[in-house]
Design goal:
The protein is about 25% helix and about 40% strand. It has two helices and six strands. The protein has helices spanning about 45-60, 85-95, and strands spanning about 5, 10-20, 25-30, 35, 65-70, 75-80. Strands 1, 2, 3, 4, 5 and 6 form a six-stranded mixed β-sheet that branches.
Length: about 100
């Protein structure tokens, strides 16, 4: 199950990032967080950038709507996405 909060037109949720994957993709929910494998190394913000681009595409929002609000230097992050719907987030976590 994915833990998230909806407030003021945005959703906030935890993400567990697995860098240096063969391709960027969601890998379901893990411990209340959305697990995302990213095809970028955790160097120079590359993995964070790839995560933001992936979430923007997957949730149908502009890239600027995705903000990492916690854990920028960690594999465990907190992300806020403006204009996203919880139903799209839950679909992504379910593998759809």
């Amino acid at each position: 199950m994915l833990d998230y909060a909806e407030r003021e037109g945005s959703i906030t949720f935890a993400v567990r990032v697995v860098p240096r994957a063969s391709k960027t993709a969601a890998a379901g929910a893990h411990g209340g967080a959305l697990k995302v494998r990213v095809a970028a190394p955790p160097v120079g913000g590359a993995a964070n950038g790839e995560l933001a681009r992936f979430l923007a595409r997957a949730l149908g929002v502009p890239a600027g709507a995705v903000e990492i609000v916690g854990g920028r230097a960690s594999k465990s992050k907190v992300v806020r996405v403006a204009g996203a719907r919880a139903s799209d987030l839950l679909r992504l976590a379910a593998g759809g």
